[in-house]
Amino acid sequence: xxxxxxxxxxxxxxxxxxxxxxxxxxxxxxxxxxxxxxxxxxxxxxxxxxxxxxxxxxxxxxxxxxxxxxxxxxxxxxxxxxxxxxxxxxxxxxxxxxxxxxxxxxxxxxxxxxxxxxxxxxxxxxxxxxxxxxxxxxxxxxxxxxxxxxxxxxxxxxxxxxxxxxxxxxxxxxxxxxxxxxxxxxxxxxxxxxxxxxxxxxxxxxxxxxxxxxxxxxxxxxxxxxxxxxxxxxxxxxxxxxxxxxxxxxxxxxxxxxxxxxxxxxxxxxxxxxxxxxxxxxxxxxxxxxxxxxxxxxxxxxxxxxxxxxxxxxxxxxxxxxxxxxxxxxxxxxxxxxxxxxxxxxxxxxxxxxxxxxxxxxxxxxxxxxxxxxxxxxxxxxxxxxxxxxxxxxxxxxxxxxxxxxxxxxxxxxxxxxxxxxxxxxxxxxxxxxxxxxxxxxxxxxxxxxxxxxxxxxxxxxxxxxxxxxxxxxxxxxxxxxxxxxxxxxxxxxxxxxxxxxxxxxxxxxxxxxxxxxxxxxxxxxxxxxxxxxxxxxxxxxxxxxxxxxxxxxxxxxxxxxxxxxxxxxxxxxxxxxxxxxxxxxxxxxxxxxxxxxxxxxxxxxxxxxxxxxxxxxxxx
Amino acid sequence: xxxxxxxxxxxxxxxxxxxxxxxxxxxxxxxxxxxxxxxxxxxxxxxxxxxxxxxxxxxxxxxxxxxxxxxxxxxxxxxxxxxxxxxxxxxxxxxxxxxxxxxxxxxxxxxxxxxxxxxxxxxxxxxxxxxxxxxxxxxxxxxxxxxxxxxxxxxxxxxxxxxxxxxxxxxxxxxxxxxxxxxxxxxxxxxxxxxxxxxxxxxxxxxxxxxxxxxxxxxxxxxxxxxxxxxxxxxxxxxxxxxxxxxxxxxxxxxxxxxxxxxxxxxxxxxxxxxxxxxxxxxxxxxxxxxxxxxxxxxxxxxxx
Amino acid sequence: xxxxxxxxxxxxxxxxxxxxxxxxxxxxxxxxxxxxxxxxxxxxxxxxxxxxxxxxxxxxxxxxxxxxxxxxxxxxxxxxxxxxxxxxxxxxxxxxxxxxxxxxxxxxxxxxxxxxxxxxxxxxxxxxxxxxxxxxxxxxxxxxxxxxxxxxxxxxxxxxxxxxxxxxxxxxxxxxxxxxxxxxxxxxxxxxxxxxxxxxxxxxxxxxxxxxxxxxxxxxxxxxxxxxxxxxxxxxxxxxxxxxxxxxxxxxxxxxxxxxxxxxxxxxxxxxxxxxxxxxxxxxxxxxxxxxxxxxxxxxxxxxxxxxx
Lengths: 621, 305, 309
Prior knowledge:
- The complex is a heterotrimer of chains A (621), B (305) and C (309).
- With 621 residues, chain A is of the alpha/beta class.
- Chain A is built from 17 helices and 22 strands.
- Chain A has helices at 2-24, 121-127, 178-189, 198-205, 251-257, 259-264, 310-318, 332-336, 387-401, 405-412, 435-438, 445-454, 475-487, 500-509, 526-533, 547-557, 562-578; strands spanning 45-48, 57-66, 69-78, 99-104, 134-136, 142-144, 147-152, 158-163, 211-216, 219-223, 273-279, 283-288, 301-306, 324-325, 342-356, 359-360, 417-419, 461-468, 491-498, 515-520, 544-545, 582-594.
- The relative contact order of chain A is 0.15.
- Helices cover 79% and strands 0% of the residues of chain B.
- The relative contact order of chain B is 0.15.
């Protein structure tokens, strides 16, 4: 019967097709050694607090009359003494053993040269295979790393950096010398680079009439002539505090392999971990470098896993497969129940804010979108004493005081944080002085309604809210919650969700006429964010440009003396607060779960989007 | 026969070409990969320089031509984000997806078939209804929710298998079950109705009338024929498999093509997205083509239809 | 037409669609539970503003992530718990029925219409029209739906005009442009068969115009199939919406749609499991009911389609 024959042949053919397909199927990979779970009862929490900056600064003002001008020169001598971190655990033997398993939500593809490394590689790289010029300690202070000592000339224009000696690149690729540092810096600003803060990096290290020079194998001179005396050498892209630390690569190795290959294969650095294997979006396998110049790790192997789903990470941690990981604060209650779990807590890990866009008060013929004073929060008159300004200011103030920041902290980030009232000052509260108590937005919806009525918006108004995602807990949700809180006073949002990459063009061309949610990590000083995002020269902008800010920020940038500089920053903070040109929301802690096989360690504070100082992670006793 | 073959082949190639055009346009609509690569504080100049170094400032027709030239040379270009040849990236992950696909299929057969046979024999009983509902759960639950629930129950609570990844031999279990459960219902139905058809047929009735024992009837005749529809169905499930693998691979951190595809969309990585979509399309079309050929070989009517 | 396009459909002689005996037998065996549940869903969707205990978009932050009363036994608190923004989940599930149903209905109607028309045309006229439409079908099937949907929604989603439904509207468009294929193929197959029937030839001889033939003679024969297929596809649409939400391209928050609720709540499955599980179970029960109902419908109307998945 044709019917049967049809079916028989069909079976034969499909079965053989399947067999052929099966030939393609490989077996699973090799099994890793099973982690041993040690159960302990203590649940310890460590809170790290920031201390006052300790610096030795000598200021000698000089007056020189040059023809018709009076020029005031400021001379600063800054000497920093190395303060190595000390692990809080009793010293372990130098023999690394065991396997560390850490999971992040994103690790990304191999980015093994300074030019191509963007987030998150910029932090993961310098925490493992490479090292940066400077590092931070647990208090957030800049400490030496590959740069051992640094000092400025009397006029502040030439910095002398003394480099560590005896530092070896992995796999016998030679000793780290000045040429490697200069090469890495050059590479990071080359055309085709993905790095940010190029403007500042170039001003400092590639100054018009200056530049970098290798005095000898272990000394580099940085001449900032043409950019004026710079106090911010360690601020941008050179220390692990601000994300974007430039990893110091081996010049010989990268040139021998060629840039393209060196970017994706064969990572060579000076860090305490050596690259073994990198499987994109799966795992990065690393091995401890024995006899490392700084610290040989306590564990022999390190696996950095990429697991994008939060639940999957939690499940793995619960099953004992991970020693630490990125965790959402919402998972705290679940993870707390695990036997022997501890938590690494860093206060001041991130500061969130809501930007109010459209406040373009500097005359800018180049801007496509002129200032739209029909919007309730925008004034037609840049003069802060004018009635129009007062009206718009009341609107913005109403927006700020109708937000219950404490409730947001308690609910959205499970209490792991504090409300923020002064934009950009996270970690510098001690330097606010008396302002600390006065610069507070008291939650008062009644008063908010009153202010809106005075501004003739008793019926409220509509506003666009762009919920842009940032790597800080709760940034999108705080926007949603803010909108619900504003409904109480008559302000109605129309919300859109947006990836930061899609929203970015609006940042750059200042074309957005609404709000967006944003967040920042810790900063070397508030001035960094003021000068990046509140001035006309800034690449991106948080919605405000004003002659007052232009003037003060420029002045602060030229002020070498930290005390004087902070005084100016306080004035800016006061102005920003009084005029409510931006809505600071809260500061949030970074929390990492610590599994039962490991213990807490002193970790660099505070931009902890990834874990640092992994070589110090101890075995739990 | 040959004319039919050639005709089908040409049509397949044309379809593939149309797919390539579509995916080319689609990828470029999806967004700009350079904005994702650069740092937040990077300047506009950095962006422009990066775009031109990646050849993204050329016109679309020009870019398309470069793309097609590459295909003719057998390569898909280089991934913008990962800076590695797309072909190599796809090859690396192909095996993992095949592994997952075959395991899911085996699972769905191993569960669907016996249930289908038993349901047919016990037609209308409680067993029939209950097994249908159990099978339907796999087809009706949001796959990622199902996967995560299974993960918490079997990997965390019971600790029988690893929660995710592809490191151990037993890592395949959870992803295969999550993905395969979706097809259990379909297999069950197919086997059940094929069995019912055969059991109702004259041939079987005659065998019974002749006194051949019931069990023998079922095993020898009905079962063999019941196997066929699910096997032929296998080729068609490929499409749903690819869709499903995206979810399963993301939840279980399974390093396969699905995950790669998701990354490509997320990063607007044009060459990678193009490469992955075309790979999927090739598999689907190749399977459909093969099945067509087989049927045409068997049934001459179709060749000239 | 190749058998690859109709997996498992046996080309048996057509039985009469509605013999009274069969109908009576079918009605006696009707699936009570699924029908009850589906009615519940429809009622919830229609009467949401009157049934839902609270506002689905406004949450009390102080009560966020509270467990469902069904597990704590505390009858004063929220029956199904609250989500991460303090919104009552029961209300959101009820309103979610509305969104899911509307999305599914519009998708099916648009996709179905397009599919039926194209299928009719393709099957009846044959020739190059048929070829072109079949090529479209091939392309639609060869492109992985989820990827295409993801790309489209991610890129165009936000700028999709609100008049057309915004991002949700775009999702409907994308899903409809995939689902028409299912209808087109089946209708085409039916048409190919039917057009060889005597009564069609008679109508032609009598001078009936083509549209009339299609509408009056062919379409009714196809209706049963369409009903069955449509019922089975509703569940599929709901599931795909949830997968799209998982991948970040679903119905945008804060609109309560079942799929996006499950996707939003998946990070909390370890602890606050109810946020994702309640809407997840809602989807599960609805789709299972739809499938069982669709199966029964098929048995009653046309058992020949038994092997259609």
